[in-house]
Amino acid sequence: xxxxxxxxxxxxxxxxxxxxxxxxxxxxxxxxxxxxxxxxxxxxxxxxxxxxxxxxxxxxxxxxxxxxxxxxxxxxxxxxxxxxxxxxxxxxxxxxxxxxxxxxxxxxxxxxxxxxxxxxxxxxxxxxxxxxxxxxxxxxxxxxxxxxxxxxxxxxxxxxxxxxxxxxxxxxxxxxxxxxxxxxxxxxxxxxxxxxxxxxxxxxxxxxxxxxxxx
Length: 215
Prior knowledge:
8 helices; 2 domains; elongated; two-stranded antiparallel sheet; 215 residues; Heat Shock Protein 90; alpha+beta
């Protein structure tokens, strides 16, 4: 299971580079603009307060952009680091809100997930849920289920990922009458000893994963 999780991570390296490159360009571009303005500071010594205020506004905007870019890079690297670290841990204690934040953050490296899917996340405001679980088994089930949804629906699909009553909920209203065998295959790593998996697909796919070893 660990090998599958790490292999999936490796397939998304191109998407990770793309996601890192975009905010990196913000940081580099805005830094170059501020450097160019610094070269003109001497001329500002003779300028009025209005010109100085304009420069302050421009620099403040660029500093915000640099901070946003740096924060985005930090989020991506944290998600990648979390994936690699946890894949080698085996059975671990997880806080499910943090887990879903990192898992969906990592999935942003899949361009279908990021650009072709209307995602709704509803877990950050949910109550804390602590569980003991094999990280690779849970991650592989969640990722496999999401990939099944992406493979079985057209771009523009809607995807919901949330925490409801302590259980992970993944739903796609666009995937009606899903092939139950494929859904069960995606969830195969979550054996009954680890989690209860409830599946409904008549009015769109809804899967509820309740980890048995909750704390």
